[in-house]
Amino acid sequence: MSDALWGTRKTPYARTVCPRDCYDSCGMRVRPDGERGIAVGGDPDDPVARGSLCPKCAVSYNHSWISETGRLKTPLQRRGRKGAGEFKPVGWDEALRGIAERVVRAVADTGPLNVINTHYTGCRGVLGRDFPLRLFNRLGALEVAPDTICNVAGQIALTYLYGTGTVGADPRTISDANALLFWGVNPANTGPHALRKSFPGCRPATVCIDPLRTRTAKACDFHLQLRPGSDAALAFGFMHVLERDSLIDQSFINDHVTGWDAILPTVRSWSVERAAAATGLRGEEITEVAHLYGRGRGLIWMGMGLQRQTHGGNVVRSIGCLPAITGNLGRPGSGFFYINGMSMHGIDGDYLTAPHLRREPMPYVSQMDMHELLADASRSRVLFCWNNNIVTSNPRQNALRKALAREDLFTIAIDLFDTETTDFADVVLPAANFLEVDDLVYSYFNLTVGPQRRVKAPPGEALSNQEIFRRLARVLGFEDPELYETDRAILEKVTGDSLGISYDELCRRGNLFVSDKPVLPFADHRFLTPSSRVEIASERANVAGHGLCPRPLAEPPPEGRLLRLLSPAAEWSLNSVFTNEPRIRSKLGDPKIHLNPRDAAERQIADGDPVAVSSSVGRLEFIATLDSSLRRGVVLVYKSASSKAAPHRANVNVLNPGWKADMGEGTAVHSLAVDVERRPSTSISRMD
Ligand SMILES: Nc1nc2c(c(=O)[nH]1)N[C@H]1C(S)=C(S)[C@@H](COP(=O)(O)OP(=O)(O)OC[C@H]3O[C@@H](n4cnc5c(=O)[nH]c(N)nc54)[C@H](O)[C@@H]3O)O[C@H]1N2
Ligand SMILES: Nc1nc2c(c(=O)[nH]1)N[C@H]1C(S)=C(S)[C@@H](COP(=O)(O)OP(=O)(O)OC[C@H]3O[C@@H](n4cnc5c(=O)[nH]c(N)nc54)[C@H](O)[C@@H]3O)O[C@H]1N2
Ligand SMILES: [Mo]
Questions:
Q1: What is the b/e burial string over 380-403, where b = at least 16 CB atoms within 10 angstroms of the residue's CB?
Q2: 154 lines ligand 2 (CB under 6 A)
Q3: How many helices (H) and strands (E) does the chain have?
Q4: Nearest listed ligand to the Cα of residue 191
Q5: Number of other CB atoms surrounding residue 104 within 10 Å
Q6: In whole angstroms, what is the distance from residue 121 CA to residue 491 CA?
Q7: Is pLDDT above 80 for 682?
Q8: Of 290, 289, 299, whose CA–CA distance to 335 is shortest?
Q9: Cα torsion through 511, 517, 522, 523, rounded to 10
Q10: Are 327 and 252 in contact, with CB atoms under 8 Å apart?
């Protein structure tokens, strides 16, 4: 362990930060630990983790993530048929030369846009996630728009209203709020420390607005268990009550908002009764929560899950009006959370990714359409997949598998572990994990920035993402200095820009807030819109076909005997990550679908029965779990269990047709309609 950095004798540990795609970004301590080499735990000094990790990270980081077993250790070259996962080891030079040759040929034959780059947030360090984009920009490769799988509709909606989709409240001001609304967000699973530990002292009244009775809902004072897809109708119901009962801030509206007059007739006509009918809620609960929010400082946390529906952009645009009409902006304990992006952390995204290296503009391709792009030999020749696991996470899983099986699609997959996606690669490259390389991590919720430290050597020949792309740039013969900037130089610059200290100092201190005092976005009441006001009426939205103003739309329930399938985040996995850990896999057991007992009875399904679930694009088997907390007509399967580990070698995204939300061609995965039937057999069969 000669290359580990263990602090001093008094502090025999290194501080590091978890780079998973999670609201928390916990500060951690790593110390030497006998046989296992190292032990990973929460940093007691960290303002977020406060000495403990969530169970999934605690288990995995102390087992599969520090063990060499199961890790990819050398580059691999395909020997079997595509998808079979049969490979032989090759050296780095040979692997990179082979890749460069295919890239050069594809660019020469058909242009750089036939080189496809798909990536996401497998690791969220600024080097591991962002630096590789410099090379793709230089190449002029086609990037599959990353946020379309996750949060783009909400970002666009907030941009119409506020001029930005990545500036929200500082969680340190939660204790100043009188009311906190968790709207389509489930931090009990998706940011456990944010829910349990970040709010010391005063506890505001809490409301959860979610069709599921999640653990977050159970922890709240109120739960509005609305019909999925009816959030805009609810937001307009709240606005109706706020206006009717004089809880709006007319002078704030006069000075800082456009378009209130334009929606006022709709708001007045959208009675509590109409809102109740559209949402399936009781009128009294709508009124009570509107009063709670309207009475004082209120904070709304809009989840990313919230906007994964066909009207997702309109939903976020409607909810986003509430802070504006009540003047709940720019003061502690007011405003909203969605994504607190890089700019709030003083980090310059363009510096990291060097978009100036790109010479030609690129078309916009949604992840929803990736299966089509990859099936089309005239549009895709080479595919890079890194920091993601598209076969588990993307829609149209069967079609995607078929496209990835194309012999003439040269696929490079970079991962820590072998996955269902690496199985389809021509070349697999082994990546170093976050314990094996220095980096810098910011949270997209807390305004923290922290060091990610190398505390052990990578297994075998594994390399960091950034080093892999530096070496590939060299083999490709590029000369641009941006492609070769060292990790150290980048880390110094980013730490300096963000915090005004050196990277070494950051490593000593661990996760730090970007400011001593809470940040108050929009405190000057100037917004980043064309009019500098909050634009409830947005000409830009109008031009883009979304209407001048948001509307009280609700998705109709699925037709006939179809049920609405929600597939949100699970407690024991982070997307597909951690589902390869044996201790977690045994907890997950057989793939389950949760049904309301009456929906089940109508289908002669009993608890524990095997069922077949089908949608317009696929069919998949599950074990039924009856759950009386579900609304009728709603079924639940947690997202992204690794299909590799599952008995049927597939997961819920077999059923996902890739419907798009109204904005940015983002995912509408929560709008999915399925049929569920009992099956005679008792076990789950393989689907492929
Ligand atoms: N049905 C359904 N599907 C969904 C969702 C849903 O709600 N329902 N949610 C969607 C959302 S929000 C998202 S963000 C996507 C996520 O989808 P993906 O981006 O595919 O996420 P993961 O499955 O976590 O894949 C991350 C991969 O990165 C690897 N990895 C980790 N660290 C490193 C590293 O340092 N280097 C490299 N090269 N690899 C690394 C991990 O081993 C893992 O295989 O899924 C989407 N899919
Ligand atoms: N443990 C764990 N943590 C994670 C992840 C994970 O997979 N596991 N994923 C990470 C990623 S990539 C992301 S993007 C974030 C996502 O963080 P969240 O947004 O919290 O996650 P989701 O679970 O996708 O969705 C939140 C809630 O939206 C609800 N929902 C679905 N449809 C509707 C609707 O029509 N209206 C309303 N009001 N609610 C609805 C779901 O029931 C769910 O409880 O979490 C991150 N953290
Ligand atoms: Mo996500």
A1: bbbbbbbbbbbbbbbbbbbbbbeb
A2: no
A3: 25, 27
A4: 2
A5: 16
A6: 19
A7: no
A8: 299
A9: 180
A10: yes
Long-range contacts of 602-607 (CB under 8 A, 24+ apart): 602/561, 603/561, 603/676, 603/677, 603/678, 604/678, 605/676, 605/678
Burial of 498 (0-12, 13-18, 19+ CB in 10 A): buried
Task: Flag whether pLDDT at 198 surpasses 60.
Answer: no
Q: What is the pLDDT of residues 475-524, one digit of tens each?
A: 999 999 999 999 999 999 999 999 999 999 999 999 999 999 999 999 99
Supply 581's token pair.
Answer: 């850990």
**Which numbered ligand comes closest to the C-alpha of 303?**
2
Strand order in the sheet with 222-224: 222-224, 205-209, 179-183, 298-302, 335-337
- Residues enclosing ligand 1, CB less than 6 A? 21, 120, 122-123, 128, 149-150, 304, 386-390, 392-393, 414-417, 419, 431, 433, 465, 567-568, 574-577, 639-640, 652-653, 656, 669
| Number of other residues whose CB lies within 10 A of the CB of residue 63 | 16
pTM value is 0.97
Closest CA to 103 of 469, 537, 593: 469
> Reduced to 3 states, what is the DSSP secondary structure of residue 422?
helix
Task: Kindly give the distance from the C-alpha atom of residue 73 to the centroid of ligand 1, in angstroms, as a whole number.
Answer: 20
Residue in 218, 229, 211 with CA at minimum distance from that of residue 195: 218
Report phi then psi at 427, rounded to 5: -135, 130
Q: pLDDT tens digits for 310-336? A: 999 999 999 999 999 999 999 999 999
Closest CA to 304 of 554, 668, 547: 668
User: For ligand 2, is residue 575 a contact (CB within 6 Å)?
Assistant: yes
